[in-house]
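B., you asked whether I could sanity-check this one before it goes into the benchmark set. Here's the sequence:
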Amino acid sequence: MHKYPTAMISYFGATLPQLSIHKIGSKVLDEQVTLSEHPLQIEDDILNDLLMQYFLQPFEKVNEVYRLYHPNDDLNLNEVFHFAEMIFADPESFHKNSQQIAKHLYDISTHPKIKSGELYIGYFENLQIEGELWPAIGIFKSETKETYLTVEQEQKQFQLHYQQEAINIKKLDKGCLIFNTEHEQGYKVAIIDQTNRSEAVYWVDEFLKLKIRNDNYTQTQNVLSAYKSFVTTEMDDSFDISKADKIDLLNRSIKYFKEKDHFDMDEFSNEVISNPEGIEKFKTFTKNYETEFDAPINNSFDISDAAVKKQARVFKSVLKLDRNFHIYIHGNKELIEKGFDAEKNMSFYKVYFSNEQ
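And here's what the prediction gave me:
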């Protein structure tokens, strides 16, 4: 396969030679699944470009890679894996297997809040993930419909028209891409789920049956998430620590991950936490975190810059004081001191600086 140093997923140069559309009704409302008899023939170049944008553009911001799996550790029991395997082995069987995928989705769509919608299943060629080009199967569902106005000129005046139940191509509700690589591990899979509601877990857990890939990205994300949870929730029970100290500990962790290429648990603990009791409690916390969230944490791995960049956005460095002040703490914690004014019966912070900007 040819390699290109670009974003994790890119559809530049990709094609969509096959596309099938089916309708998934609401099981709760006794609606049925409606299967198309033939794949869709796309002969309009503009329509093709719009579909590529609708299906694939949301994946350009995706970083996580998942695997298809089954709780019994037998991939052959995963329905989507089985049908994807058949399509990759024989692309001519695409439409027949797309019908089976639609039936499977309908069968598991038993939650009362699951909406009916169109299911699009596409076969892509030359779709890029992590610098390599692969064939891929895309499964997309549109549930949210909107009303659009159109303006047309008729002779010397304009007329307004509208179209109800239309699809906004900038709002893909649900989607997944299954890449024909790493077959034995359950393929590389990327997902989109804009609904983000509790009933929407059926897409990931029941329909696709996914688990996140345990790679450097995942390892980096897991350690930073565990550390953030440890600092913000666990340390209060064992240490008398101020919010400024917590922010400093979070900043030091991000600094470590930005400056290092490789993570080592002992090195990280000594450089960032430094307190022996705190180090011991953090290591115990990570073991419990692994079990509770099914998030494996290795003692050593190469650091993923993409994961660091993503996690850094949620590491708060703002100290909020009532509704009057916000103090942004980015560097040396020794330049900020906390005190208490008995006369005013209020706490205060003293901040040292060299230059005012």
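One thing to flag: The first strand starts at residue 9 and ends at 10. Otherwise nothing jumped out at me.
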